[in-house]
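User: Teach me something about this protein's shape.
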Amino acid sequence: MLVYLHIPFCHRICPYCSFYKHTPGQTPIGEFIDALLLEARTRISTLDQAPRTLFLGGGTPSMLSPSHLRTLFSGLQQVIDFSTLDEVSLEANPATFDGSKAQLFRELGATRVSLGIQSFSDAVLQTLGREHSPQQARESVEILRSVGMPSINIDLMFSIPGQTLQIWRDTLQQAIDLAPDHISAYNLTYEEDTAFFQSLLQGEMADDEQVNQEMFYLAHEILTKYGYLHYETSNYAKIDHKSSHNRGYWRGEQYLGLGPSAVSTLQRIRSKNIPDTAKYIEMMKNIGHAQSEAEHLSDEALRLEHIAMGLRTMDGIPLDLLDFAGKKRASDLQELDLLIIENSHIRLTLKGSSLVDPIAAELV
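Assistant: First, the predicted structure itself:
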């Protein structure tokens, strides 16, 4: 069982991000923490499995004050036995913590920090609307290492407007020089309801498939050369540092989402909390839950998800997940060197990994 907490607060709204988030504004953060802990107590007590991982995402969880972090983790430790968890992950922005706060992350039980660095280029960071500098990014890794954080991830992004292949190469090299335990290299996607998407529609930005593939291949070449295992389309890890929480999603494990906009999939029921922090707090106070929608997942819906998620991993998927027509298409794609079929299993080649979404669509 995976548990995810959504912390929606950001100092600045990045123009490419489609996750539910907002600046703190007039939000009473203490009341938000109380509502989040109420939901945790209410829902975790009904689970048929003990939590295996805990992930605090956002938004920017690391921008919470030390007192709010202590209150949150203290409350969570009353309903979750941290000693049994495989992983406790916290997303962090390099500009939101110093050495003492990083030490607090560790004392509170965090075993993995995922840094939203994205780039080591000043110009690219400006395009992305990030509030940290390349120097702060480098320092944040050293700070986490100095407090003994067991696992450190760096998030990077490619195919950003104005980012050349050489700039991307430099960012990858600077990331490697810091020797993090894990590196995520994401292809920028233009999501609806973002400023970047509007710029794409207006022709101010372009999504170039050839550029996407060139930068994907470059990341694979450089990161694997330095000993990072390419275990999922966008993720590379040193030995014993694969993300246990994210691997659970890709394997189709059940997960509980807490907080505004958070999604859960439990006992074939997918539900979503209301994507409004003020209303989330109000609903938790008044009716004890903040669910705004729910649906029952059919066998077919689960099959399609397992295909789409499983193809992203180096393990691939069982051939039996495909129907007759899907198996025929898989055979055709093997001829094009996009996937490999062996031992009744399918996994994508490197060439196929760069086209994972259209290949998944083709197979279903």
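Now, about its shape. The CA atoms of residues 256 and 264 lie 5 Å apart. The chain has a mean pLDDT of 96. If you'd like, I can walk through any region in more detail.
User: That's plenty for now, thanks!
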